[in-house]
Amino acid sequence: MAPFVVYDIISENTNLLLAFFIGIGFGFILEQAGFSSSRKLAGVFYGYDTVVLKVFFTAAIVAMLGLLFSSLFGWVDMSMIYVNETYLYSAIVGGVIMGAGFIMGGYCPGTSFCAATIGKIDAIVFIGGMFLGVFIFGEGYPLWEKLYMAEFMGFPKISEYFSLSEGIFVFFVILAAVFMFWGAEWAEKKFPREEY
Amino acid sequence: MSEVRKTKYMNPYLAGVLLGLVVLSANLISGRGLGASGAVKSTIVAAVDAVAPAHAESTEYYVMAKGTHGNPLNNWLVYQMLGVVVGGFLSGVLSRRLTWKVEHNPKITSRTRLMFALAGGLLFGFGSQLGRGCTSGAALSGMAVFSLGGFITMAAIFGTAFGLAYFFRKLWI
Amino acid sequence: MKKFQFTPRQLLSMIILSLGLIIAAVPKNTTTPYKLSAGQILEEMKSGTQYLYPDLIAQMLVEGDPTLQLIDVRPVSEFEKYHLPGALNIPFDDLLSLQFQDILNQDVMMNVLYANGTTRANEAWMLIRQLGYENNYVLSGGLNYWVETILNPQPPAAISPDDEFARYDFRKAASGALGGGAATPAEQQTTTPAAIPRPRPQQKRQAVQGGCS
Questions:
Q1: Structural domain count of chain C
Q2: Tens of pLDDT along A43-57?
Q3: B127 closest CB neighbour out of A43, A94, A196
Q4: What does the alpha-carbon distance between residue B67 and residue B52 come to, in Å, rounded to a whole number?
């Protein structure tokens, strides 16, 4: 039964080794898709390159469907899968700050490591900025501790929040995504940039 | 014609399917999704602990982060990120995309680009700690398990970026 | 002959829409998986190691053994009329209800299920054993046998072996402590030493800690 490490099908050390290989897959695919280029990443916000939208939503949908079908066939114990915690205010404020960082820096943490490894100096600088940012957060922690710990809602699932079954929720996400894929196609024709 | 246009990248939909399978396998094998910013945090905690252990003992954040288990670097996320570096490099080698360069919009200078990269990184580093994740950990992996927090953070990141796009357009277009 | 050529986008969209329709329509799988196979549970049932006898339980009660947890699987009304000292009531129909899982699925106490006879309690045991829960036992003979042996013990025939007399003495004393009818003033009694099963730690699945923080 999955998850394998929880059901002792693999040991903790094997788990860490597999984490390394999963990372290789992650990095390889990101770079192959072009996420190592900040201009491609930022393109989704201006319409000239919507690779972020296509890859992101396709990946999320494939993962969601994969988990739901695995659960349906009894292959995975969903109660043992980690669901991200929800601290309402810090999730929003953190997201806003990250959004600003994204549009300014053109990277996110995962893609910046990919880009740095193929020689993009701006990615290396971005990573440096990240370390600084984390350090500042840690040093000044008491200043924002209240915000960080506010409004803990547990580990709710968004499908529960809207009182939908997970399957129905995924279906809506898929509808939205398909709509956006067609929109992306239109945007790339409307806002073309030859050089980037 | 710039080199990016000429560069052969993988079909985005195919890449998305493969990435989704990677996220799925992470969940099936390790019971958790991917991530990135957490590894940065672990590195900082380990570094501060090594360089100034007294300070690490007395500062609440590092004490909290270190928890009860040993080396903060001996965790799933750090090993995953090491893999990301290797994987990205392999892809770069295979597709012959290894070059040192500062990638920027020709309308701005390298210096401008680097300054904003630094600023962007700073904001992202700070924001990812506050938001308990980044686009990989909170948004992508969070979406995969239907986490409400994940969706909220994702909406905030992309919503803000779209909202601010007009003000930073000179950087990109 | 016209060949149907789809762009990747169209192909992908069709596939995910179809899969999405299926997953939205199919009801969720909410079964709790069985941890023991049918063969494994058959072996355990054949060995009968889940049965505990009244003498042992009486001994544990008298000694005040903290690891004993009696669980009454009869309906609430019967529980309220009479129940063994310290017993919890988990009515048979509510055996799988969420509130009781932490009591049944643990490794600190020895749960001894009982009912009026053996059958109900053993059925309960079979069910939760298949879910992989450990440290659950069945009071053999149930309350009926308990009353017969502990609360109202019959003196053995004069020609019976000594250990039967010892057992009888123990039961008389125990019945006094446990509210029976054949109470006699406290006297020297030899408690039958018995192997008291100890709670076994069981593998509790640890949920994974993940996330980027």
A1: 1
A2: 999 988 999 999 999
A3: A94
A4: 17
